[in-house]
Specification:
Blueprint lengths: L1 H23 L1 H15 L4 H5 L8 H7 L5 H12 L13 E6 L6 E6 L1 H22 L9 E5 L6 E3 L2 E4 L1 H7 L3 H6 E2 L2 H4 L4 H12 L4 E6 L1 H15 L4 H4 L5 E4 L8 H7 L6 E8 L2 E5 L8 E3 L5 E7 L21 E8 L6 E12 L2 E8 L3 E2 L6 E2 H15 L2 E10 L8 E10 L4 H15 L1 H7 L9 E5 L3 H8 L17 H13 L1
Parallel strand pairs: 1-5, 3-6, 3-7, 7-8, 8-9, 19-20
Antiparallel strand pairs: 1-2, 4-5, 9-10, 10-11, 11-15, 12-13, 13-14, 14-15, 16-17, 18-19
Helix pairs in contact: 1-2, 1-6, 10-11, 14-15, 15-16
């Protein structure tokens, strides 16, 4: 195993030279990728429609091709699902990643090409390990197994193509080098029954030398607690003494860090965030002890950034990478080697560095509360939750929030449902700090809170243990890339949860 460890580390080190190249020449690399993408798609139906052959630069591309959403691309994707080819991308599209739905659909189906698998998703996984090996050269991560928890996987045949959770598609097509290191095996990984899978993995993992964990924090915690119940151990290091590395993504890690520090009580545990989605692999945390991520610029994705204040413009103008500013919120627009053209993925980011380009995910274009002009985003909520938890010794497990609308002459409010892993020492103080920090980090929220004119103090419900798990299960959203919605500009999620809480009390 030591020899294998050395060989894999050597391979990872070679890739770091290429990463340094796009860090040094970011704009040139991005323009080259745009040229390659447009050239590749000239003969597709989409390329002919927008005359890709005559597009000479990014400005012409942006003027000619409108910004797309899933709904605008859906007619093309539906034809591709039935087996039609050369529609959005020239190479055969056999796989579609099934993802959370839009307002019109329960699910959306994102095309996944061979190029996207190889040059984007797999390269992202290799790069994450490369950066880890660079930052911690004395690691022994390859001397054990990596426990990968991807949630409930199921491949569904649709016509001549296949669809399923992105992680299922990745597992189905894994190169041999990745399969060598991972746990559990493919059959168990693809088990569509999430709860059964958790139970089987928990029993089998006790006998493995697990050196790394990966997955969405929500579901990793569910697995970790079950392992401790079965083993009778007090923390994961008693089960796996060589555990050294956890790479995570899908949701903000801020509310979960305290829980992981209890589960893995070691200052040497290395936490690393990655930003990937069904649409592509976008960024990796390249600095230790940092919550910013390096934007990965050579994965076959061309990036544009739409300032959030221009989101609802009739003809919104995006920024190239060379035009972005630190600290501003942008909606991400991507063009990819799977045929997504100027596609708005629904995430918002802000830049923390321009040399190299590093970002933080600040929220979702549809996950915010702006009922009263307060423009509250997920990033604000995470800051407030973290501060209130620190001030009161609490550990928040999950939460969601939405608006309380004006009634007669009464001001509106935000209503929160919070489930604690560890209750606050003083619940009222927790609520007060939450409100205070929201006012500090968001001037629009603060203005609406002055004298309770537009917004009263938040209304907060403490949910009993297991509430959010039961709610996600009821909605068929256990495991995988499913996430608890943090903020919503309506009361759909909030009222559904409150009804469930009321019925169970």
């Amino acid at each position: 195993m030591a020899i294998v460890n050395s060989i894999l580390k050597w391979i990872m080190k070679k890739r770091m030279h290429q990463i340094e190249l796009f860090k040094k020449y970011p704009n040139e690399v991005q323009e080259e990728w745009l040229h390659d993408l447009i050239s590749a798609a000239q003969a597709t139906e989409w390329g002919k429609k927008y005359d890709y052959e005559s597009i000479c630069n990014s400005e012409v591309f942006k003027e000619r091709v409108p910004i797309q959403t899933y709904d605008s691309l859906k007619p093309y994707i539906e034809r591709m699902l039935k087996g039609e080819q050369n529609i959005l991308w020239p190479s055969p599209i056999k796989w579609f990643a099934k993802s959370s739905g839009t307002t019109a659909d329960r699910s959306k189906f994102i095309p996944v090409s061979e190029e996207a698998l190889e040059d984007c998703h797999y390269t992202g996984g290799k790069d994450l390990l490369s950066i880890y090996c660079q930052n911690r050269p004395d690691n022994a991560v390859f001397e054990g197994k990596g426990l990968v928890l991807g949630g409930s996987h199921q491949i569904n045949e649709i016509g001549k193509t296949s669809s399923g959770d992105l992680s299922a598609i990745i597992v189905q097509n894994l190169p041999f080098w990745a399969e060598y290191h991972r746990f559990p095996d493919i059959e168990l990984t693809l088990n569509p029954n999430f709860e059964e899978k958790i139970e089987r993995i928990a029993h089998l993992a006790l006998n493995e030398n697990i050196t790394s964990l990966s997955g969405v924090p929500t579901w990793n915690i569910v697995l970790a607690k079950r392992i401790l119940e079965i083993s009778g151990k007090s923390n994961l290091l008693e089960v796996w003494p060589n555990l050294e590395f956890y790479f995570h993504g899908g949701v903000s890690f801020k509310p979960y860090r305290a829980q992981f520090e209890q589960l893995i009580p070691s200052e040497n545990m290395y936490y690393m965030e990655n930003y990937n989605a069904s649409e592509g692999y976008f960024a990796i945390q390249d600095l230790p002890d940092s919550d910013e991520m390096l934007l990965m610029l050579d994965y076959g994705i061309y990036f544009e950034f739409l300032p959030m204040e221009n989101l609802l413009d009739e003809h919104p103008k995006t920024k190239n990478l060379s035009e972005v500013e630190i600290g501003k919120n942008y909606a991400i627009i991507i063009s990819t080697n799977a045929g997504l053209w100027r596609y708005m993925i629904g995430d918002t980011v802000k830049f923390t560095s321009l040399s190299p380009y590093r970002i933080q995910v600040s929220g979702r274009t549809k996950q915010y509360i702006n009922t009263f002009g307060e423009e509250l985003i997920v990033d604000n909520a995470e800051d407030a939750i973290r501060a209130a938890s620190k001030a009161t010794g609490a550990i928040v497990k999950d939460y969601t929030a939405g608006p309380v609308y004006f009634k007669d002459k009464e001001a509106g409010a935000h209503e929160w449902i919070i489930e604690f892993e560890k209750q606050p020492e003083n619940a009222q103080h927790f609520f007060e700090v939450l409100d205070q920090v929201l006012r500090q980090v968001n001037s629009d929220y603060d203005a609406k809170r002055v004298s309770n004119l537009a917004l009263k103090a938040p209304i907060i419900h403490i949910a009993k243990e297991g509430t959010f798990y039961d709610w996600m299960k009821k909605r068929g959203k256990l495991g995988g890339q499913n996430k608890v919605p943090r903020l919503s500009n309506d009361r759909i999620f909030l009222d559904d949860l409150l009804t469930m809480i009321s019925e169970s009390s």
